[in-house]
Design a protein that fits this description.
Elements lengths: L2 H16 L51 E6 L4 E6 L5 E2 L3 H24 L22 E3 L6 E3 L10 H9 L5 H22 L10 H27 L1
Antiparallel strand pairs: 1-2, 2-3, 4-5
Length: 237
């Protein structure tokens, strides 16, 4: 061994002997763990309640962190966790994190649903929607047809809105007065029905029978043939 190597070993040995002893303290907590509470600051057990008995083996201590001030503390005697709120000072055996998780999931699902509905609407045409559609809770106004008794909804999202009849009415309304035409048609129907009730069915033109229809077709064919051959007779004259 050379002199340089011997001197290096001696310096390392002297440095280790001169190093101060480590402090008699607990190791600091990991970044994902909550520092343990001191013994004098440990919250009391829930008042008026006995720790529930559990036959299961002792679980490994685990600290649950929440944004609302709740902490889970392991109780060795009952081998269970109790929960302490550092903000309000409340202690309980019931797990508050389960209810918070359910409420957060429910509210997030609602927000996601309404967000998807809003994304499906063209923002340039959103002002054309009825005012009720802007309400996230929403409501529907409806009425019953006075003639048929059918349930008629005023919502534009009903299947009847895209039916062939309603499509044609919206297209024709741009060029004609569809409502006036329908009113006139209904009036004619009611007048015809009132005339039948007043004067009887004989006052209304009856449909032709099969024999009458056949005779009418024969007469019309003979007249058409006569018109085609009439020029021959005139030429002979």
């Amino acid at each position: 061994m050379s002199a340089n190597e011997q001197n290096k070993l001696d310096n390392d040995k002297n440095t280790q002997e001169d190093a101060p002893p480590l402090p008699d303290e607990d190791a600091p907590p990991l970044p994902d763990e909550q520092p343990p509470l001191p013994e004098e600051e440990e919250p009391p057990l829930p008042e008026g309640e006995e720790p529930p008995q559990s036959s299961a083996q002792a679980a490994q201590p685990q600290v649950l962190q929440g944004t609302n001030g709740w902490s889970a503390i392991f109780e060795p005697q009952s081998q269970r966790y109790y929960y302490y709120n550092q903000t309000t000072g409340v202690t309980t055996w019931d797990n508050p994190f389960s209810n918070i998780q359910k409420e957060e999931d429910k509210s997030s699902n609602k927000r996601q649903f309404y967000q998807e509905e809003d994304d499906a609407i063209d923002p340039d045409l959103a002002h054309l929607l009825p005012s009720s559609s802007k309400d996230p809770h929403g409501y529907v106004q409806a009425k019953f047809n006075t003639r048929t008794g059918q349930f008629n909804s005023k919502s534009w999202q009903t299947p009847e809105h895209v039916s062939a009849i309603n499509k044609s009415r919206r297209q024709q309304a741009a060029f004609f007065d569809v409502d006036a035409f329908e009113r006139q048609r209904n009036e004619d129907h009611f007048n015809k029905k009132a005339k039948i009730e007043q004067l009887g069915k004989d006052s209304v033109k009856q449909k032709l029978t099969k024999e009458q229809l056949k005779l009418y077709k024969e007469q019309k064919a003979a007249k058409r043939y006569k018109n085609k051959t009439d020029w021959l007779i005139n030429d002979d004259k």
